[in-house]
Amino acid sequence: MSEVEASDIKADRSKMHVSDTDVAIEINSMNKWYGDFHVLKDINLKVMKGERIVIAGPSGSGKSTLIRCINRLEEHQQGEIIVDGIELTNDLKRIDEVRREVGMVFQHFNLFPHLTIMENCTLAPMWVRGIPKAEAEATAMEYLEKVKIPEQADKFPGQLSGGQQQRVAIARSLCMNPNIMLFDEPTSALDPEMIKEVLEVMVNLAETGMTMLCVTHEMGFARQVANRVIFMDQGQIIEQNDPDNFFDNPQHERTKLFLSQIL
Ligand code: ADP
Ligand code: MG
Predict the structure, then answer these.
(1) Is residue 65 in contact with ligand 1, taking CB distance under 6 Å?
(2) Ligand 1 atom index nearest CA of 68
(3) How many other CB atoms sit within 10 Å of the CB of residue 213?
(4) Which of 86, 87, 241, 249 is the 20 to 30 Å CA partner of 72?
(5) Residue 42: Cβ within 10 Å count
């Protein structure tokens, strides 16, 4: 085969894959139980690359469980979850692959308390990805600058405020160069004055085109950043809409009740 033909095929292939690769996450008829408790019921969700989705809903509705299924911190029992083209099964290799693509930020930061901020940010890149220390440190510094705390690099998590620790947690995730970022109520453990600084970092991240799924009740953030708000109740996706319609014109009674309680 001539070089020209070979490169044509390559070009064709990349074209063929364009539609597939536009999808970041696809969930089809997914069900999950904790023992006898049916926690997620027939979940269907397609997230396109670069989309920013806010997940809202009352406590206990299954929001955390849903996003924990997406990076395989939890298993589902029925249906499909496909993340970046990788179907999540019980295959451990797949789980590893997926964790490389997906970063997660939790309510309670989950930094390693005995490691410095810099060490928190370089640990996984060095030991999971095999990146040389100097390079991992340079990348970490870049992200610490982006979250506006480069001067804290040599401190320990306990010496930082909650808002600063959460910004480190975001930087640490980004150091693994993920394609998708999951956030589970990243500001709900923070004092009001620190919420803004964390949301600002998340807004900046959204502007870079990152695919984001955020469980949050920060409605200002949702209106500013989300393409779509998904409302969950009792393990189901009850309704979804663009933020303005979601907040100003909720359809379902349960959505109206929820919004009346939080707004
Ligand atoms: P949310 O994040 O919306 O508050 P969760 O996903 O944390 O909801 O929880 C959904 C439901 O599943 C709740 O009723 C919760 O008590 C239950 N649940 C969560 N984790 C577990 C678990 N590991 N084992 C059993 N039940 C759980
Ligand atoms: Mg939760």
Answers:
(1) yes
(2) 6
(3) 26
(4) 241
(5) 14
